[in-house]
Amino acid sequence: MIRLFSILFSLWFLVACISPASNRSEVRPAHRFTPPVSPYLEPEKQLEYLRFHYWDHFDFADTVALRLADSTLMLRHFAHFAAICATAPRDRGPIDSLMRRAASSRPMLDYFAWMGAQILHDPESPLRSDEHYIPILEALLAAPYYNEYERLVPAFDLERARLNRLGTAANDFAFISRAGHKGSLYGVEAPQTLLFFSNPDCAMCASLKAELEAAEPITRAVAEGRLRVVVCYVDEELDVWRAKREPMPQGWLDVADSEGRIRGEGLYDLRAIPSLYLLDEKKRVVVKDAITASEVVPALL
């Protein structure tokens, strides 16, 4: 629940950054969408209700209204809906239901797919989620409106989104340590592994590293042997990685993809770095593509 409120608090900044300027003189109040009010008092029931009923008052048959809609406001609504869905990260039902209704026409499907890409697929969005973006891509590919060339991009994005899904085994890869020792992800023995894709030239990586070091639940888990942090360099210029050695906390591994398979074979969808993957003892994905310590901490043992 705390993470939900944190996400909602940041939405105004997200939408301001990604939304096109709208001409409010052309927006008609009658075409402003208003989500329903939950009949429940309990927060958990309110969220469950809104996950499946958020769009009940939206007219999916009225494509004319799309030309009159305030896209900034609609993006805020979609972001709010996505934040509510984020409280059940593995439940694709609400997105499936939404996209079945949006698929009533190409303009409607295009519009909701566009909003979904901004909120659920953009690597800088705090609400990005492959699990919730997959139903949107599947809806695009299942619709009869697009030719084979128009299907290429969603088909590629769907293939990437299906990599290392929550609950599945993460892709293994070989690595080399600073000392020249060879190993592999699956060779790291720990109840949980935090895979930290990073780059020594990346300012955001340095900031995230400091955040992880300052997170008491993470440092405690490492100290107690419940968590191993693997900081992995994935680019080809190993000389750059070797030349820019930085101190790592005790219990962290500083390694590089020695065979170039992560990027070369597309083992992970690294549209942006830094990126965090929390894995369980069997290297199954518990948290995917996180960019803050707060996304990882609730899933620690």
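the 2nd protein, sequnce then structure:
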Amino acid sequence: MTIAEIIEIESKRTNVDEFNVVHFLKEGEFYRAHDWSAWIMSKFPFGAAAEKPMGVTVKRLKDGYLDAFVGFPVSSLGKYVPNDGSVEFKPVSDVQIDVVVELPVEIGEVSFENLNRQKEDWKNSLPLTEGKKKRREEREVRDAEPRITRISDVIGRVLAFQLESKSPIEAYDFLRSLRQDITKLF
């Protein structure tokens, strides 16, 4: 299924009966909920997402459209879409599952335009997910760093590394590169 088809499915919501439907679309080994469906999962989570909120990925597509989505592995379907009667589960096709969610009563009293504006505000407030190109450029800069030839070089790198301003992934990458450098020394 293409992103254009996904956007079309998500944009077909025009009446209150469609406000509470989450479309999970199978993409490879994952089920993903895009746009409106991702917003519902963030605002009114159910299943495993109610216990631990799902991370939202936001990417800018070539046409400038912001695509926000959440997802989980196909093997975790039972955790995210429980079969305990708390949500209504409707298989639509071999690549789409719809889940009807119980929303607060007052949501039906809000206009579609207002809800859509809330969803767009939510989507625009999320940080863009960094692309592969930027990560590759950062790796190239790191690879261009001077070669470690003494243990004092390793100590200097550790002291210069600003851990407080780094993400867990950046800290892990730094630790991995240090380990490689130390291995080369001995």
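The chain has a mean pLDDT of 82. The first strand starts at residue 21 and ends at 27.
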